[in-house]
Specification:
It is elongated and about 50 Å long. The protein is of the alpha+beta class. The protein contains 3 helices and 3 strands; from the N terminus they run E-E-E-H-H-H.
């Protein structure tokens, strides 16, 4: 039996407030775990739901499961903490 799971295993706030999110695509078959990664970046003040929807579409095309809802909440919570009005204004000033 093959078990699959997609989890957010790393969230980083990079330079300028960009969120860098790594998803682990886990597969377990005969007690052997395989792991692949998918990464996404969200700009300060960006639409996390739209980015995740695009990632989920891509994951689906690869035969992988979508990002876990609880993990999406974690990403949004970190974005709320990291994306202060000053961070968003500084990003917009660079455009």
């Amino acid at each position: 039996m093959i078990t699959k799971q997609t989890i957010v295993d790393q969230i980083e706030v990079g330079a300028g407030g960009f969120l860098q999110v790594r998803c682990a695509l886990l597969g377990i078959e005969n007690d052997v775990e395989s792991r692949k990664y998918h990464r996404m970046t969200v700009k300060p003040g960006g639409d996390i739901d739209a980015v995740i929807a695009e990632v989920n579409t891509h994951l689906s095309s690869m035969g992988e499961l979508p990002v876990n809802v609880a993990d999406i909440v974690k990403v949004k919570n970190l974005a709320t903490a990291a994306w202060t009005p000053e961070v968003i204004a500084a990003y917009k000033a660079l455009k």
